[in-house]
Amino acid sequence: MKKPDNQMDTKVTCACGNTFTVRSNKKELHLEVCNKCHPAFTGEKIVTVKKGNVEKFNRKYGLGEK
Ligand SMILES: [Zn+2]
Question: How many whole angstroms from 36 Cα to the centroid of ligand 1?
């Protein structure tokens, strides 16, 4: 395996505001999700979506708050 020799410190900026540095051949990177805000890591967004679905279900069948 040939080792890439054009790697540099890449500043990665996420849409959530988190920044960190990785080694890559790009000077800068922009992400929409990172390990700080990705649902698979935080579980936060998954919970939100599930909660929203329950509320929609409750509303549809008149089970939620009026
Ligand atoms: Zn993020």
Answer: 5
DSSP annotation of 3 reads P
Specify the CATH architecture of the domain 1-34. Irregular (4.10)
Paired tokens of 53: 């679905």
pLDDT digits (tens, 9 = 90+) for 3-17: 657 889 999 999 999
Q: What is the pLDDT of residue 62?
A: 80
Whose CA is closest to 12, among 22, 2, 1?
22
For ligand 1, the distance from its centroid to the CA atom of residue 11, given in whole angstroms, is 13
Instruction: Report the separation in Å between the CA atom of 2 and the middle of ligand 1, taken as the mean of its atom positions.
Output: 32
Distance between Cα 14 and ligand 1 center (Å): 5
Domain boundaries, the chain: 1-34, 39-66
Instruction: Supply the pTM of this predicted model.
Output: 0.50
